[in-house]
Write a structure and sequence with these properties.
Length: 147
Amino acid sequence: MVTKWSYKLLTGNEMIDKQHKEIFDRAAQMLNSGRSGKTKEEAASLVSYLEGYYDRHFAAEEALQKKHGYPDYQIHKDMHDRFSRGLTELKLKYAVVGASYGLAIETVLFMLEWLAGHIDKMDKAFASYIRDNQPVAQKPVSKSVRT
Ligand SMILES: [Fe+2]
Ligand SMILES: [Fe+2]
């Protein structure tokens, strides 16, 4: 199970890599600090922080893909959406059995595991497409100025 960021997760796109690393670093702070003294509220707040961060990260990737006319945009977006729905279902399930530190940590691990796989299969592919297909710079419009 991948719970730590490593160079194997690099996509080569600076903005995207920075965001991926932020997710893993935040989660690591919680996971490595151990259970002692941590409350279920703290663990739950990490889940909500990550959830919001994932949303913003997905939006940033999708905007970048649109800007560059990425041909697999829809497939990629569907994967993001499916993950978000899965997370909502998981949280609903947890709400039924009762929130706990353990369940919050399990959710974080699930989020990281999914992200690592997604980076490897999907994000690396789109980052490399963007590298190879930079938008053509617009030619400056030449203006003839009459005096
Ligand atoms: Fe990503
Ligand atoms: Fe993605």
